[in-house]
Amino acid sequence: MTISGLSPTTALGPSDAGAAESAPAPDLSVVMVTYNGREMALGTLRSAHASVGELSVEWIVVDSGSSDGTDEAVREAFPAATVISGENRGFAAGNNVGLGLARGRYVLLLNPDVEIERGTFAELVSALDERPAVGLVSVVQKGADGALQPSIRRFPSVRRDLGESLFAARWPIMRTCQELETRPKIYHREGRVDWVVGAFLLAKAAAIRDVGLMDDEFFLYSEEVDWCYRFRAAGWEVRHLPLMTIIHHAGRRDRGDLMAQLAYSRRLFATKHYSWAKARAIRAALALGHLVRMIALSPAALKGPEARERIASERRALAVQMGLADPPRLDAPRAGGLVAQTPSPLSTGRSLQ
Question: At residue 2, what are phi and psi to the nearest 5 degrees?
Fold first, then answer.
């Protein structure tokens, strides 16, 4: 089966088709998209395998053109996993290839830089079985230093993005005037949320069929914001469920190309989901944030290269946010050309909203 964009088509031989039809559907499909980082990816898979519990699981790894042998290393270390090798067409597009193969009642989109610290997949799936209205959940996330990594977010708005631009996180009275949820007590209890960071997203297959796959216009960043927004719009709850704790070895986002890509993705989300006027106001608030940070960093730029590099990154992101420059991966090819071997019940879902 060749998967192109968001519409997988089946072209199986008779023996493959018979095997696919006779195999019982697993409880959980774990989908992981890799791009280099071989040892980290292998560590993530080992940690995830050790955290299954009493559950049937299938493992799907979509490698996006790694040059360090990640795909071959995964095939050798985890022969039961389905490994798809192809070009780097973006994080959302890679996840869509995995979603197109998934047969489980639930699907976990798992970053390749994650370790499971506490809990099991079986506990999480059992909890979701008891919550029929919940379509998507995430769990407690920590950084590599063991500190809480805020992963609950609010949807973008003019007030919130303006608050972020004016350093709302530093002022207790303004902490809710931003997208980021920084209050630690919130992470200790279950609750409905707007959206959650995409390092660990567990979704019901039935909800995915209703909502559709990820929008691969989002090459990197904001694909989970868009997905959560669409889950909620379709009537499914998005929740933070603190039954598991993961360690997320997140990389820096202040590199020039990554910051510019983030700026473009935030701009794309606002333009897609909000009115022209609201989207323009949000973009203006985000642009102000880049300007404010450039000014705040100016004194430090006189003393060292790190601040100067950060200012250059902010300047590039500002240009993208204002529509004066293209994002780094705007012209990247789409998800065609990745080859899979099995059909998917999820590929019958609705197209993107």
Answer: -100, 125
- Helices then strands, counting H and E runs in the chain, come out as 11, 13
Q: Are 205 and 197 in contact (CB under 8 A)?
A: no
Tell me what the mean pLDDT of segment 116-136 comes to.
Answer: 97
Query: What are the angstrom distances between the C-alpha of 266 and each of 111, 188, 249, 320?
Result: 20, 28, 22, 10
Can you give the pLDDT at residue 281?
A: 97
**Rounded to whole angstroms, what are the CA distances from 13 to 19, 82, 347?**
10, 17, 18
Q: How far is CA 135 from the centre of its chain?
A: 16
Per-residue tokens: 114:
């994650």
Contacts of 301 (CB under 8 A, 6+ apart): 307, 308, 311
Q: What is the pLDDT of residue 303?
A: 81
Burial, 70: exposed, middle or buried (Cβ in 10 Å; 0-12, 13-18, 19+)? buried
pTM: 0.85
Residues recorded for the chain? 353
All domains of the chain in start order, with CATH: 2-155+194-251+332-348 (3.90.550.10), 156-177+252-322 (no CATH)
Q: What is the torsional sign of CA 62, 330, 228, 197?
A: positive
Look at residues 346, 262, 329, 342 and name the one whose alpha carbon lies nearest to residue 65: 329
With bands split at pLDDT 50, 70 and 90, how would you rate the model's confidence at 349?
A: very low
Cα atoms found within 13 Å of the Cα of residue 197, Cβ hemisphere only: 20
Across the chain, mean pLDDT equals 86
In contact, 246 and 255? CB cutoff 8 Å? no
Question: Whose CA is closest to 103, among 150, 56, 49, 154?
Answer: 56
